[in-house]
Amino acid sequence: MSDEKREGAQIQIRDLHKSFGEHKVLRGVDLDIERGKINIIIGGSGQGKSVLMKHLMGLLKPDRGQILVDGEDIVPLDDYALNRVRRKFGMLFQYAALFDSLTVGENVAYPLVEHTKMPKVEVEKRVIEQLASLGLKNVEKKFPAELSGGMRKRVGLARALILKPEILLYDEPTTGLDPVATKNVDDMIRDISKDTGVTSVVISHDMASTFRLADRVSMLYEGKIVVSGTAKEFLRTDNETVRNFVEVSGAVEMPARGAQ
Ligand SMILES: Nc1ncnc2c1ncn2[C@@H]1O[C@H](COP(=O)(O)OP(=O)(O)OP(=O)(O)O)[C@@H](O)[C@H]1O
Ligand SMILES: [Mg+2]
Fold first, then answer.
1. Confidence (pLDDT) at 7
2. Which atom of ligand 1 is nearest to the CA of 52?
3. Which residue's CA is minimally distant from atom 6 of ligand 1?
4. Which of 6, 58, 102, 208 could form a disulfide with 251 if both were Cys (CB 3.0 to 4.6 A apart)?
């Protein structure tokens, strides 16, 4: 890989629009996702964060706009070509979305079985290693319903990581977790980022986590990205909507308005 490829934006979103019927959800989103960094997207409930994330790996088609992944616009691609692009991604869905009728081991193995011709013994070995790297031992034979919420998140993360993706998407990974489990998941996101150099995109409602983890923070509001920058730049914004959103959480201190 050239230096040029390792630096800068891995995903460039340009003028992205998406409506459901009359409801305009995305109204011209422009956003760069930086390669190898932790990119966090915040915003109120129903603002379109999950919708935006699903566009990144081609799970939804926009009405208009571009999504360049490593410079390639994925919007016009058909399903066959999209499958190749999707191999670059791992996604941890908002509600863990494990298959309840499959064991934990079968859940984690699923992408390997779908996308590779890896022999069964090798698959089993990789699954056990992946689970162990996230602190999960002897859970392969259990069913998701037998695990706690925090453990289910980690199983979802193991499944997202099993194909060694270049880009990891996390949709509200700590929703419903207590403060200790939240910190564990945050630490995992940071360790995975550091150890693998993966590009991370995290949707978060938790301001304390956001400013602990983020290299870059962007806020989605009324269908657009209203402020985007490094965590430090972001906190210096004069945008009232953004300031109120962050301040009401009480989790982080913002510099006074107009401070440099
Ligand atoms: N497939 C769909 N069909 C119709 N409307 C949809 C669809 N998916 C999302 N929406 C609508 O788009 C809007 C944005 O939804 P989205 O799930 O992206 O919000 P969000 O920002 O992720 O919210 P939350 O923080 O609660 O998860 C909502 O009004 C939702 O009802
Ligand atoms: Mg959502």
1. 66
2. 18
3. 20
4. 208
